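Query structure, 460 tokens:
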């Protein structure tokens, strides 16, 4: 168990201490970015005259060979090594000799791991943004296909006003579009390079930090070496953003679970995204939606774990920060899998449009429009509100909808009603008369779809 840091120690590390301290079991996924960062580092060392060009070429070739052998299954990242960094360096020295010992010149594991996590997180943000775009594409298609699909809109889980399925789904399109923007913001804010910060105070070697930052696609080096190695704000922001993504998926899942129930029957989830019961043969369960809803709490937990880890750490690096990886990796993996499966689920589900329309026709979703009709006749809105309240009581008692009342029945409540009331309170009128920007009318949704399509073209 020879360690990179073992020079001042006279005894071997206790095996249990070694295992407790090791991170190889989870940081081995950083191998690609660790080697990418090391290649940029030694290229800069050669340019600055700190190592020779021949040494640089030998190191880069050795690093490429290690990566290729691992991917080909010829070399295993095993628990023999403390972490991925020691695995790379030890194997490099075995392969190319003393030149490999110069890999770590002007570098600490502190700025090395800070770089690896930034590179890995940056790549993951890009991948999750692509997942969100894929989900938005599926949503936009459903929005375009359902501009005439009338359904009840709800507040307090009670029927409120008629909308369209297109309008309802557009609300989720906006949520996920905001998620995309948040991830873009985080990417920009985190895109600074910590390499060259050393353990905490930089180095005496004349490193060109700007060259490394540019080589690795960063905007610039981190401005302060202590902050560079101890900053995990970008991970906290990212896990916070993933928590919001999961919250949006969970809200959507909750609605699909309700809509899939026998009581609603708004949606049919495809067999390929549902499961059955081991005892009840009639069951078809929305497990993907339910698991997504459940896994939301898991991502929240990852965020809280990292927040708690960071809450009282003095500057600069502390070993506590090793705890960032498992929580971060778990949140990244969970959110990515949920986004991918959710997009597949909604792309294959179908809607019972007649059931949705019939549901909107019941429950007095046109009551507000009936009140607006009276306002158009000169009745003050507050009085109109009271009149329609009396109509609803009458309808409720007599098991009728408003439009099923005869004109005589309506006039018995208010003389302001006339034959044209039926046109005003039809479901089509209730939807299409709402023409303000962001409303469910065909005109408003046509404008919305046009803008959403342009936004998708800009970001794909």
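Result returned for the query:
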């Amino acid at each position: 168990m020879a360690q990179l840091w073992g020079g001042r120690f006279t005894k071997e590390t206790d095996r249990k201490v070694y295992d407790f301290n090791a991170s190889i079991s989870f940081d081995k996924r950083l191998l690609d970015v660790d080697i990418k960062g090391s290649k940029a580092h030694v290229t800069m060392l050669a340019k600055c005259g700190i190592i020779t060009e021949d040494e640089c070429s030998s190191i880069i070739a050795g690093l490429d060979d290690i990566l290729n052998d691992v991917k080909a299954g010829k070399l295993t990242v095993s628990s023999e090594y403390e972490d991925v960094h020691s695995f790379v360096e030890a194997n490099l020295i075995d392969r190319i000799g003393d030149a490999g010992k110069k890999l770590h010149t002007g570098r600490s594991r502190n700025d090395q791991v800070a770089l690896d996590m930034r590179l890995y997180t940056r790549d993951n943000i890009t991948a999750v943004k692509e997942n969100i775009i894929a989900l938005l594409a599926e949503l936009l298609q459903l929005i375009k296909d359902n501009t005439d699909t009338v359904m009840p809109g709800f507040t307090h889980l009670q029927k409120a006003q008629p909308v369209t399925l297109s309008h309802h789904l557009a609300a989720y399109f906006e949520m996920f579009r905001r998620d995309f923007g948040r991830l873009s913001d985080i990417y920009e804010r985190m895109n600074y390079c910590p390499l060259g910060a050393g353990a905490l105070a930089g180095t005496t070697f004349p490193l060109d930090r700007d060259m490394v930052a540019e080589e690795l696609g960063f905007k610039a080096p981190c401005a302060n070496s202590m902050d560079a190695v101890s900053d995990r704000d970008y991970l906290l922001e990212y896990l916070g953003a993933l928590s919001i993504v999961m919250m949006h998926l969970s809200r959507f899942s909750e609605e699909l679970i309700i809509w899939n129930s026998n009581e609603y029957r708004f949606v049919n989830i495809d067999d390929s995204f549902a499961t059955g019961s081991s005892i009840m043969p009639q069951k078809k369960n929305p497990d993907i939606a339910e698991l997504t809803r459940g896994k939301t709490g898991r991502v929240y937990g990852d965020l809280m774990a990292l927040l708690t880890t960071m809450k009282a750490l003095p500057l600069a690096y502390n070993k506590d920060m090793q705890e960032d990886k498992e929580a971060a990796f778990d949140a990244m993996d969970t959110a990515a899998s949920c986004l991918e499966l959710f997009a597949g689920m909604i792309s294959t589900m179908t809607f019972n449009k007649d059931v949705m329309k019939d549901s909107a026709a019941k429950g007095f979703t046109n009551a507000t429009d009936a009140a607006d009709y009276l306002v158009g006749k000169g009745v003050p809105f507050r009085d109109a509100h009271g009149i329609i309240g009396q109509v609803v009581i009458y309808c409720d008692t007599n098991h009728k909808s408003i439009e099923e009342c005869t004109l005589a029945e309506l006039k018995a409540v208010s003389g302001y009603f006339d034959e044209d009331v039926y046109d005003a309170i039809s479901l089509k009128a209730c939807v299409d008369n709402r023409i303000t920007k962001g409303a469910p009318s065909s005109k408003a949704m046509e404008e919305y779809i046009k803008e959403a399509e342009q936004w998708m073209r800009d970001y794909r």
